[in-house]
Design brief:
Elements: E1 12-16, H1 21-32, E2 36-41, E3 50-53, E4 71-74, H2 86-109, E5 116-122, E6 144-145, E7 148-149, E8 178-182
Parallel strand pairs: 1-2, 1-4, 2-3, 4-5, 5-8
Antiparallel strand pairs: 6-7
């Protein structure tokens, strides 16, 4: 990763659902840069950064860790590393909707909410294109249904991540989640580390 520009002070960064592959990479990177990292996870684990229990569905003591934080990067959601049965597709979709809506309600009630809120999202809502760049303003979607993007992961037929482009926006009057879109990617076997699904 390209190093972050020097900050005037260490940042407080919260990663809901940061116990999976992407979350661990980000947590390690931000920690190495000297920032204070808190991962919200269903199953807290021992690491060099802080891990705090949450269930992604209900308000609890974890909300205190968002107060006064600088950045929230939401990675929560049922893992897509599964068979795309009806039950699993529903869980993939609803776990992202519920956790994002919950964060919106909590952030909206904070006295000092994070000024930056990123929501992990997928780049595969866009069609494969070599003729022009795909972005939020100029892209054509891979598929739509009822005005919402519906293609996220090959074979699922759903776009499970909620962002300003997908799903109902959270009720927070404060920062709205900005989509951080990326395609599916798998690390090399030597780079993989054991972890829990990112919820």
């Amino acid at each position: 990763m390209r190093p972050l520009p020097p900050a005037s002070r260490p940042l407080r960064i919260v990663l809901p659902g940061g116990s999976g592959q992407v979350g661990r990479v980000l947590a390690h990177y931000f920690q190495e840069c000297g920032h204070h990292v808190t991962v919200l996870t269903r199953l807290p684990y021992a690491e060099t950064w802080q891990t705090v229990r949450w269930d992604g569905e209900t308000v609890g003591p974890w909300t205190d860790y968002l107060e006064g934080t600088d950045v929230c990067i939401n990675l929560a959601g049922r893992s897509v590393n599964c068979r795309y049965t009806t039950a699993n597709r529903t869980a993939i979709y609803e776990s992202r909707i519920r956790s994002t809506r919950l964060l919106g309600e909590v952030i909206g009630a904070l006295a000092d909410p994070p000024p930056v809120w990123l929501n992990a999202s997928t780049a595969t809502i866009y069609r494969h294109a070599l003729d022009r760049p795909m972005d939020e303003l100029r892209a054509s979607s891979a598929g739509t249904k009822g005005g919402a993007h519906t293609v996220a992961f090959p074979g699922t037929g759903i776009s499970p991540s909620m962002s300003p482009k997908t799903g109902k926006p959270p009720s927070s009057p404060h920062p709205r989640p900005e989509p951080a879109r990326s395609p599916c990617a798998a690390p090399s076997p030597s780079a993989r580390s054991p972890g829990t699904p990112s919820q």
